[in-house]
Amino acid sequence: MKKALVTGCAGFIGSHLTQRLLNDGVTVIGIDGFIDNYDVAAKLRNLAEIGKHPAFTFHSTTLQTGRWDIWLENVDVVFHLAALPGVRNSWGKSFADYVSHNILATQELLEACLQRPKPPVIVVSSSSSVYGTMQGTVTNENAPLHPVSPYGVTKEAMEQICSVYVKAYGLPVSMLRYFTVYGPRQRPDMAFHRFFRQMMKGEQVIIYGDGQQSRDFTYVTDAVEANLLAAQHAVPGDIFNVGGDREIKLIDVLSIMGTLLNQTPRITYQNGPAGDSLRTCADIQFAQQRLGYKPKVTLEEGLRHQLAEIRSQSKG
Ligand code: UGA
């Protein structure tokens, strides 16, 4: 891979991926529309270091402006991370925005890649939220999809539109279903980011539900690694679960955080917004076999890194 296009390069996972590609000597075209789902200053911070790199070109625009000829010139691999994320805000009127950013924009990207003399390899970011609440021991990619949020519905539709382009045209698209990614630069609406900040300020931690919901939390550099492996080894149409080191209940994560901060979390339990999955647990065998994917960062280690970043920001 000599040249890559990263959509959503100022976002949480996109900025880590861009950094890694630049470190590996890849030329990167980055696009980010700074859609206002959270503080633009945080996204600008994500870009601070990569923005100075001589092999990085940045286009501050949404995909819907469609300057594909410029963006895709000589690009070997497209990493498509641009999206409107977050399960809890996808109800009501905002659903139209989710449809636009997650489905329509993806279809435009597929169409543009198809027009290239040699279409690039495309790695698309999807989500464990396509499954909804998981049943049984672990869930592999063939499990039925029962999203419980409008966001999950848009991610499922995004996968379907990608699969249609693979079947009809052989477009080399693969998809990654991330399981609740965390680590430095995590989005401010996500649980670990909020919990660390609440505890550092001596505030109550707000848990939605009873804290017994579980996740297969995945450290951000493992999600980045999965992207690079998929670009090299995936077969068109492949879909991979990208999970972390283990499934754990939210309440148990909070107690690890308490240990790291040397305090006992004070918790307020609230009815959360609808759309929350009660359980996610990834079977990553397929990603292991096809890609050689294996999560490297334990939850304890990853939480330490995330805390260190939040601490350094609150000083700065
Ligand atoms: C996350 C991302 O936000 C989605 O964009 C992504 O697609 C999804 O992971 C996925 O992997 O499929 P979520 O699992 O809800 O969604 O991640 P968090 O926001 O970190 O929430 C984890 C759990 O903590 C949820 O049960 C949530 O209800 C709970 N939570 C969150 C709280 O109890 N309190 C809070 O203040 C925030």
Give an overview of the whole structure.
It is a single chain. This protein has one domain (3-181, 218-244, 277-296): Rossmann fold, CATH 3.40.50.720. The protein has helices at residues 12-23, 40-47, 68-71, 95-114, 150-169, 191-200, 220-233, 250-261, 285-291, 299-315, and strands at 3-7, 27-32, 56-60, 77-80, 121-127, 173-178, 181-182, 205-208, 214-215, 218-219, 239-242, 248-249, 267-270. Helix 6 runs parallel beside helix 8 (250-261) and helix 6 (191-200) crosses helix 10 (299-315). The mean pLDDT is 96. With 316 residues, the chain is of the alpha/beta class. The strands form four sheets. The chain has a seven-stranded parallel sheet with strand order 3-2-1-4-5-6-11, sandwiched between helices. The chain has a two-stranded parallel ribbon with strand order 7-10. Strands 8-13 form a two-stranded parallel ribbon. It contains ten helices and 13 strands. Helix 5 (150-169) links the parallel strand 5 and strand 6 (173-178). The radius of gyration is 19 Å and the shape is globular. 39% of the residues lie in helices and 17% in strands. Uridine-5'-diphosphate-glucuronic acid binds at residues 85-87, 127-129, 178-180, 190-191, 194, 206-208, 213, 215, 250, 272, 276.
Concise synopsis of the structure shown:
This protein is an alpha/beta fold. It has a single domain, classed as 3-Layer(aba) Sandwich (Rossmann fold).
